[in-house]
Specification:
Elements: H1 2-17, H2 47-57, E1 61-65, H3 71-82, H4 84-93, E2 95-99, E3 117-121, H5 147-163
Parallel strand pairs: 1-2
Antiparallel strand pairs: 1-3
Helix pairs in contact: 4-5
Main location: endoplasmic reticulum
Protein name: Anterior gradient 2
Family: Belongs to the AGR family.
Length: 165
Amino acid sequence: MIRAALSAFLVLVVACTDGKYIPKTGKRIPQTLSRGWGDQLIWAQTYEEALYWSRSRNKPLMVIFHLEDCPHSQALKKSFADEVELQRSIDEEFIVLNLVYETTDKHLSPDGQYVPRIIFVDPSMTVRADITGRYSNKMYAYETGDIRLLMSNMKKAKKLLKSEL
């Protein structure tokens, strides 16, 4: 009887989580700043705030440029939000910011202004031009099939951070 009740409880827990990432500290209230990219992640509100968090916590910053009405951005957002391992790594090891507007900072658009693009910035406020996607004409672009490459680039960003300390 107890086994049956425990089994039913586990099924309910798995069904309630819906395969989404849940932080170690427990489920968080979804932030509107996530814009669907990961409701359980803590998102910076501005680039300046993200840089401050990056420096003070000694974590790399991941900046995501996207548009709400762009089909490529929407597809990448879905893949990004559904990847539990990616969400866990971001939550534990990165500062994240997503922007739906272009910046005037030329460092954040070294090869042009397009979406979606993901740029890594280290705590010394240096844009990592050496961490790119797979396209030569849009170096920081990622597509839905590039999630593994993005995760590899995240590991690279962490490794570069450690080697520069």
